[in-house]
Amino acid sequence: MTRKQARRKKQKKAVRFSLPKIRMSHVAAPLVAVAAVVATYYVSASMLDRPIRSIEISGPFQRVTALQIEEAISGQLEDGFVSADLAGIQQSIVALPWIDQATVARRWPSRLRITVTEQVPAAIWGESGLLNVRGELFVTTARHIPAELPRLSGPENRSADVARRYLEVRDRLIPVGLDLRRVHLDPRGAWDMTLHNGVEVRLGRRDVDARTDLFLDIVADIITGRVAEIDYVDMRYSNGFTIGWNNGSRTPVDDAEDAMDEMLALRGSD
């Protein structure tokens, strides 16, 4: 190989890349259009974002006043009609103790319309708390407690469970002429209930659902005629239950199916 041929072999071929030619007019036109749209939006928004002139508040005001609602959201009304944070305003209203739900809407040209629904107390929780119909604790210390409400108690994180059991049992007691006055769940997980006539129903910690069903399906109907004489009903047995009488005596019933005969015999001995 000659020197000339070696030099040619070492030489690298240069590769040229050619980029497509872009006409600036093709880029500028869309950018100008987008900028025009954005500018129009902000100009329109600024023209519409006038100060909020009035607030319309409606609802069944029994525990909360319209003035309390206005005070709760006063700091959020400084924004304009368009820029006002409706979700934030709604959250501030719902944070009031007796407010259950709230809706906030704009009404042209500069008015906000607020509609509220108050909480409905369904039960007393502990000493002075109040639960709503969903079993949620919405007031921890109520100044005025309706005397007719049932009393529920238990660990703070179990309020919904206690409320659920109360509602389930109460709905099944009413057809046999009974009602619930109290439901309690202790820290160990043991349940007990008190009927409106003072009869205590002890359910314990185990097989609570099965024991509750036994009481509702058989025992409640059996004791209806003699509730004034009964102190408690103990359901904490694998089979049957025990009736404790006001005079201190006890009547164990080993077979729930024979319970009706037992009670009929007791009634006949009066």
Question: What does it look like?
Answer:
This protein has 270 residues and is α/β, with parallel strands linked by helices. The chain folds into 2 domains: 54-118, Ubiquitin-like (UB roll) (Roll); 123-268, Cell division protein FtsQ/DivIB (Rossmann fold, 3-Layer(aba) Sandwich). It contains 7 helices and 13 strands. The chain has helices at residues 3-10, 24-48, 66-73, 86-94, 159-173, 208-223, 259-268; strands at residues 54-58, 99-107, 111-118, 123-125, 129-131, 137-139, 151-153, 180-185, 191-195, 200-204, 230-234, 241-245, 250-253. Strand 5 and strand 6 (137-139) form a beta hairpin. The longest helix has 25 residues, at 24-48. The model is unreliable at 35-44 (pLDDT under 50).
- The assigned CATH architecture of the largest domain is 3-Layer(aba) Sandwich
Strand order within the widest beta sheet: 6-5-4-7-8-9-10-11-12-13
Report Rg. 37 Å
β-strand number: 13
Rounded to the nearest angstrom, the distance between the terminal CA atoms is 135 Å
Number of domains: 2
Strand coverage percent: 15-25%
Averaged pLDDT, please?
84
The profile of the biggest β sheet is: 10 strands, mixed
* Proportion of helical residues: 25-40%
Helix-strand string: HHEHHEEEEEEHEEEHEEEH
| CATH class term of the largest domain | Alpha Beta
| Total of DSSP H or I helical runs spanning 4+ residues | 7
> How does the helix and strand content classify structurally?
alpha/beta
Q: What global shape is seen?
A: elongated
Unreliable stretches: 35-44
Q: What is CATH's topology name of the largest domain?
A: Rossmann fold
Specify the CATH homologous superfamily of the largest domain: Cell division protein FtsQ/DivIB
